[in-house]
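Request from the bench team (R.T.):
"We need a structural guess for the complex before ordering more zinc ion. Sequence and SMILES attached. Just send the tokens back."

Command: build protein-zinc ion structure.
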Amino acid sequence: MKVRFLGAARGVTGSCYMMKVKGVRFAVDCGLHQGNSEIEKRNWETDIYDPEKIEFIMITHAHIDHCGLLPKMVKNGFRGKIYATPPTVDLLEIMLKDSAYIQEMEAEWKSKKRSRHGRAGDSPLYTQDDVEKTLGLIKAVEYNEEFSPFDGVNILYKDAGHILGSSIIEIRVDEEKDKRVKLVFSGDLGRPNQLLVRNPSYSEVADFLFLESTYGNRDHKNEDQSREELLEAINYSYNKGQKVIIPAFALERTQEVLYSLYLLYKEGRLPTDMPIFLDSPLAIRATQIFSKHYRYFDAKTREFFKAGEDPLRIPNLKLSETPAQSMSINSLEGPAVIISASGMANAGRVKHHLRHNIWKKGASIVFVGFQAKGTPGRKIVDGADTIKILGEELAVNARVFTINGFSAHAGQSHILEWLSNFQNHGMKVFLTHGEYGTQKILAELIKERFGHEVHIPDYLEECELKADRIYETISKVQSESFKVNWDYVLNQLENQVSELRDNQSHIGSMSWSDQVELRDEVLEAGTVLSRLLSSVVKKGSSQEKGNYKS
Ligand SMILES: [Zn+2]
Ligand SMILES: [Zn+2]
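Reply to R.T.: structure attached below.
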């Protein structure tokens, strides 16, 4: 039995475990690789997946870093079944369609750019057509109902309490007579007492555990505190007659915010004359799917539905579907709450709302999710005085709230608590879905507290798993291939500058306006370089200081 780590290995995106059990190849998750250009190249390297020879794929949940490569697999020859829970099946449809739309738009944009330079167009990673074919392969499986896709292998989905429909997957393999091996894949693990979803289920026995480690180095605040912070932002802007902008991911986070607002409304603490706009078509679709599948929620949420109330539908909620509806919000006078995507303010409609409000005193911007480095959201959270949005440099005069109690991932102590349910000795733990630094911290804690052997696999590493509970790395890609060729990059840059110099007399004969345009672009390239340089120099000198200390 073998496992190959095709993603989320010493990183968080592109989750995919490629298994080979009794000669049958199948995968747990097939997520999109997201991040820098090197990481995103992996989405195109389909040969590694060999999709034609995958018998079936199990999906833990509908986040795009766990399912976003499915249509690419189908495009390149995968024809097997895709297993997911009923809510995940519905969510996959809207998430994959949205993803294909983004892929098509990006390809179109790149093609336009390339054709201006006389080059051939770009084709998208996959299209709506590929998504349609993918949807035809999906088969719903209920939680806690074991099934056997082939002889000697039994599979069980359990609630992971991360987002609606999310699962822990257990696989029981009868290797030979009396040799039974159990694998547990945590998927993304939720945290106890999270809004809407149930608490994560746990397992008691595993020979091999594949454990996520996103927050392996820290804990979160709780959601009661988060609700109070949300109310503080609303009261602040309400009293000043301004708007509250909440950039939120369309799936799960938006619904948690809606639910929190509903609870505040039920407690009579929310201003009743303040409209709440949900301004994201994807979030609106996702919310409808949430309401449809309410029976999968925790007891408290189910009670609202049973009593005929929809806690995701506060009375003054207005759904904004079309771009025209979205734009009309900006001409509205007085206070309002606007929930819009994307969650990191780097794309989508929320950018327009920020442009109209971030410079206004009395407005608030409420961040409810993780802000990745380099995104406008991160810059605002880090205290930028001004921010460039849609080409305009704007002063940040709005009050900025960062609420971090809404996380859908288990924090460090939750992961350890969840692990404490395993009763058997000799379990091997593979840490995945986390940054390497974080994983090393968690690995030490697990070894110390439980004595389990812990391994942090690298991207493309392949391990043999044996029935007597040993594992062995059988292939590892030389990390050489991941080195950046700096000589090449810098030579390229130098050549470009000297080419520019060689053409100086020709440039000097261009029209005045063309020269100004060119000058500005060259200067802008220079600005980018100085920014990079200053951060490199800063990092270098702080590292040196560190060395002196030790
Ligand atoms: Zn997730
Ligand atoms: Zn994930």
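Two things stood out. The domain at 2-218+410-480 is CATH 3.60.15.10 (Metallo-beta-lactamase; Chain A). Confidence is low (pLDDT under 50) at residues 545-550.
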